[in-house]
């Protein structure tokens, strides 16, 4: 029985080998399709990741440009404020000098009858 039992599986194996030889192109096609699908999914994931990263970079760039603009405006405001304060001091001194001159003229005219 073992001889006939061992002969049968050999025959089955040979028929499987024939079936697998017949199915080999289909198997290879299926395998190639699976690999193509896997490659497409990987590319899709990579594209999605890169698109998200690009959006994050663009958002961060806009935010950083806004921060730079705000900082630059602050620096310009401080320097302009300093210039204006100096101008005010000069104008105050000029006003005081003119006021003193007019006071002295009024005092001179008041003394001379």
Fold and architecture overview:
This protein has 113 residues and is mainly alpha-helical. It contains one helix and no strands. The model is unreliable at 11-15 (pLDDT under 50). The N and C termini lie far apart (158 Å). 0% of the residues are buried. Helices cover 97% and strands 0% of the residues. The protein has one helix at residues 2-111.
Overall 3D shape: rod-shaped
Main β-sheet, in a few words? Answer: none
- What is the typical, i.e. mean, pLDDT? 86
- List low-pLDDT spans: 11-15
What class would the helix/strand composition place it in? mainly alpha
Binned strand content: under 5%
Helix content: over 70%
Number of helices: 1
Q: How far from one another are the termini?
A: 158 Å
Keywords: Cell projection, Cilium, Coiled coil, Cytoplasm, Cytoskeleton, Flagellum
Subcellular location: Cytoplasm, Cytoskeleton, Flagellum axoneme; Cytoplasm, Cytoskeleton, Flagellum basal body
Protein name: Dynein regulatory complex subunit 2
Family: Belongs to the DRC2 family.
Summarize the structure.
By secondary structure, the protein is mainly α.
Topology of this structure?
Layout lengths: L1 H110 L2
Protein name: Dynein regulatory complex subunit 2
Main location: cytoplasm
Family: Belongs to the DRC2 family.
Give a quick set of tags describing it.
113 residues; 1 helix; mainly alpha
